[in-house]
Amino acid sequence: VKKNGKNGYQFFSSVLNEQLQEKIEMEADLRKAIDEKQFILHYQPQIRTEDSQMIGVEALVRWKHPTKGMISPGLFIPLAEETGLIYSLGTYVLKEACRQMKEWHEEGGPLIPISVNLSSQQFHQSNLVQVINDILEKTGLAPQYLELEITESMMMDAEISGSILNDLKELGVRISLDDFGTGYSSLSYLKLLPIHKLKIDRSFIQDITSNTNDRAIVATIIAMAQHLHMDVVAEGIETREQLDILTENDCHKIQGYYFSKPLPAEEVEKAFFVPNRV
Ligand code: C2E
Ligand code: CA
Ligand code: CA
Ligand code: CA
After folding, report:
1. Nearest to residue 70, comparing CAs of 97, 111, 40, 94?
2. Helix %, strand %, coil % for the chain, to 5?
3. ipTM strictly over 0.95?
4. Interval between CA 151 and ligand 4 midpoint (Å)
5. In a 3-state reduction of DSSP, which class is residue 25?
6. Where is the EAL domain (predicted)?
7. Which residue owns the Cα nearest ligand 1 atom 41?
8. 24-35 pLDDT, tens per residue?
9. pLDDT tens-digit series, residues 64-121
10. Whose CA is nearest to atom 13 of ligand 1?
11. Rounded distance, CA 95 to CA 98, Å?
12. Which ligand has the minimum distance to the alpha carbon of residue 60?
C-alpha cells in the first residue's frame, strides 16, 4: 500500500499540475480572445406551440478558438468569472445581441425580444444600468426588446437584488428567471420583485414522461407563474412526448432541441423568418 501510495501521489500531483497548466493557458487564450473578438453568438428560438411562431430568442456565446475549435460556454464562462474577464466578455455579448436584434427588426424580422444571460458578477456590477443604457442607446434597440436572464442564486439578498431589479425595470428591460427551481432561495421574493418570466429548468423536463414527481413540480411552477401573471417557458424540450405533457399542463412556450438548437444568425433567419420579405 505504501509503495502504491507514493506512486499514486506523484500521479495525482502531475495530473493536478497538468490541469493547472491547462487552466493558465486557457486564461491567457481567453484574454487574447476578447481582444481579438473570437466570440460569436448563437441564437436559440423560443416557440409558441399553438402556431409554432418564434416569440423570443436566447443569445448563447461560443468561443471560436483558433486551434481548439468551438468551445462551449460551460467551459470558459466559469474561468471568465474567476478572472474578472466576464465584464468585458459580458458587455460584448450584450452589445452584439442588441445589435443583432435591432438589425433583425430593421430587416423586417419579427418584433421579439432577445434574451441575454447575466452572470452574478455582472448583475452586481455597480455600473450595470449605465452599461446597459449605453448599449441600448448605441444600438438603438428599444428597452422592452432586451430580456436579461438571471438566476435565483442572485436573489439571495432580496434587498440588494430588489434595488438592482427596480433600476432595471425603470430602464424598461425585461427580467427572466433562468434555471427556475434549481436554486435554494425562498419563493417570497417572487411576489416582491419585478420579474416577467420563469424558465423551468431542463432537469425537471428530462424525465417528465416517466417521473411523476418532476411532473408535479412542473405543473406547480406553471400554475404559480400564471397566478403571479408571469410568462413561463419550459427549457430543454427534446421530444414530442415532453411537449405533450407541457401542453396538457397549460405551458405553451418552449425552448429546446425539439424545435431548434442554438443557431448562427443566418440560420435563424432562414428557418424562422417569414420568407416573403425582401
Ligand atoms: P442556460 O442559460 O441554461 O442555456 C441553455 C443551455 O441548454 C444552452 O447550452 C443550450 O444549448 C442548452 N439546450 C437548449 N435546449 C436544449 C435541449 O433541448 N437539450 C439539451 N440537452 N440542451 C439544451 P450552452 O449554449 O452550452 O450554454 C450553457 C450555459 O452557459 C448557459 O446555460 C448559460 O448559463 C451559460 N452561458 C451561455 N452563454 C452565456 C453568456 O453570454 N453569458 C453568461 N454569463 N453565461 C452564458
Ligand atoms: Ca439562459
Ligand atoms: Ca437555463
Ligand atoms: Ca442579417
Report:
1. 40
2. 50, 20, 30
3. yes
4. 31
5. helix
6. 23-276
7. 61
8. 888 999 999 998
9. 999 999 999 999 999 999 999 999 999 999 999 999 999 999 999 999 999 999 999 9
10. 236
11. 5
12. 1
